[in-house]
Design brief:
CATH architecture of the largest domain: 3-Layer(aba) Sandwich
Radius of gyration: 23 Å
Helix content: 40-55%
Shape: globular
Distance between the termini: 76 Å
CATH topology of the largest domain: Rossmann fold
Number of helices: 20
């Protein structure tokens, strides 16, 4: 049989999922960025696109658990299994244990994938392993191999420890870890002055007045999204922009800055809110490719006075230039594991040192840029204490011209969201259905 015909024997949805795993492993790609491009390339939509999405994202989320199960079914260390074969075995395991795929279909399609992408010998090996996996359901396997939370909930042990410390209690930890493994719902934001949420299909979000939870379908096909009047944005991120815009300032309120604006979602909402008040937003981003994403997100948006490519730690603005500044700082992303499943396997404890140093520098720079009486909102999509209370405490200890104010007064309708420092806010997937966003409101004196 010609090779081209052999390749065609693997259905496109599984082929896309396999290519996603390879891109994440080899190219350090992000699932939520590489997947849409592959879906377009293979012209998948509807149920096929949904199947490929769940297969790829779910496999990466549950990789830790699946590797423990596969290790129990293979007579040699997993590190000695060829990477492409291991990717396929993980995909097959997810189909067997977590998707409504018949056992024979899950095994045979995975074996075909290995045969056409690796070799016939590897296909025989995959067949034998997956038959062992299919002997029990997921609950039985977890009872056998998941003797600790890290394995049972597919999180690295150090991440489990950091999340436990951030929660400050053990009784909710299982619920949080389980929420991290749930596929996130698609949430849309109507950018005020350009769209209303009545225009968007879906149920209104619980806390943001601009959001809806999409019931189904491709958000990229909605006219408001195509035209940039609305966008896809987690409700937690919407609340960050709302808080940054809603905190009271003393005196003039005309000059706003998003210091770390890429990829542009919060900047787009901020710009819309600024335009409603006659204010202007400068969107600043250090990385050129992310600055281009900001430009795309802010296309045709009112309220934008500039899009700048600049390092936020050494910004090209005069001190005291702005009335309010948002610092949505680069972080570990451990609060967004639902939508960034690979982050749990990619991050290391050593990353915290570099990131917290950068975060402190960014907040310090923002406080220099805001005038007395103005505010800085510091936000991260991580609940890790080193990146939240640790950064804020270090900044406050190093300055005598800053006070920490109660961000809960700006977002009074969000319950059960007390942060690790008085006045700060911590959102949680298992409590609020959002990413685990942290917010701290700082006022320059």
């Amino acid at each position: 049989m010609p090779r081209s015909q052999q390749r065609g024997a693997v259905d496109p949805a599984r082929k896309v999922a396999f290519e996603v795993l390879k891109a994440v492993r080899v190219d350090d790609a992000y699932t939520n960025l590489v997947l849409p491009a592959l879906l377009r390339e293979h012209r998948l939509s509807g149920r096929d696109a949904a199947f490929a999405t769940e297969l790829a994202s779910g496999t990466i989320r549950w990789q830790g658990t699946y590797d423990a199960i596969l290790a129990a079914c293979i007579d040699r260390p997993l590190r000695k299994v060829e990477s492409k074969v291991l990717d396929a075995l993980r995909l097959g395991t997810h189909q067997l244990l977590a998707m409504r795929v018949p056992t024979h279909a899950a095994i045979s399609t995975t074996v075909d994938l290995v045969r056409f992408r690796v070799s016939s010998g590897a296909a025989g090996f995959a067949n034998a392993v997956l038959r062992k996996v299919s002997a029990q359901d997921l609950a039985a396997w977890v009872a056998q191999v998941g003797t600790d939370r890290a394995t049972a909930f597919s999180h690295p042990a150090w991440v489990v420890d950091e999340l436990r410390a951030a929660l400050g209690r053990d009784d909710e930890l299982d619920a949080l870890l389980a929420a991290d493994n749930e596929p996130p719902k698609v949430t849309l934001v109507a950018r005020p002055g350009r769209s209303t949420r009545d225009e968007l299909p879906g149920e209104p979000t619980a806390f943001s007045p601009y959001g809806v939870v999409l019931a189904g379908g491709d958000p990229g096909q909605l006219p408001a999204v195509v035209q940039g009047r609305a966008g896809v944005q987690d409700e937690g991120s919407q609340l960050v922009a709302i808080a940054a815009a809603g905190a009271p300032v003393d005196g003039v309120d005309a000059r706003w800055l998003d210091l770390c604006a890429g990829p542009g979602g919060k900047a787009a909402l901020l710009a819309a809110l600024a335009a409603e008040r006659g204010a202007g937003l400068v969107a600043s981003e250090r990385q050129q490719h992310r600055a281009l994403l900001v430009q795309r997100a802010l296309r045709r948006a009112a309220g934008v006075t500039g899009i700048v490519t600049a390092d936020g730690t050494t910004p090209p603005y005069r001190p005291g230039t702005f009335d309010r500044v948002l610092v949505d700082a680069p972080c570990t992303g451990l609060g967004a594991l639902r939508r960034r499943p690979e982050a749990r396997w990619r991050r290391r404890p050593a990353d915290l040192v570099e990131l917290t140093t950068l975060q402190r520098k960014l907040v310090d720079a923002a406080l220099d840029l805001v005038r007395p009486g103005g505010i800085v909102l510091y936000a991260t999509c991580s609940p890790v204490l080193g990146e939240t209370s640790g950064v804020v405490t270090a900044v406050l200890e190093g300055r005598d011209d800053v006070v920490l104010e109660d961000v809960g007064r700006v977002l009074p309708d969000v319950p059960d969201a007390a942060g690790p420092l008085p006045g700060t806010m911590q959102l949680w997937p298992h409590r609020h259905g959002t990413d685990a966003m942290f917010l701290a409101l700082l006022r320059r004196q």
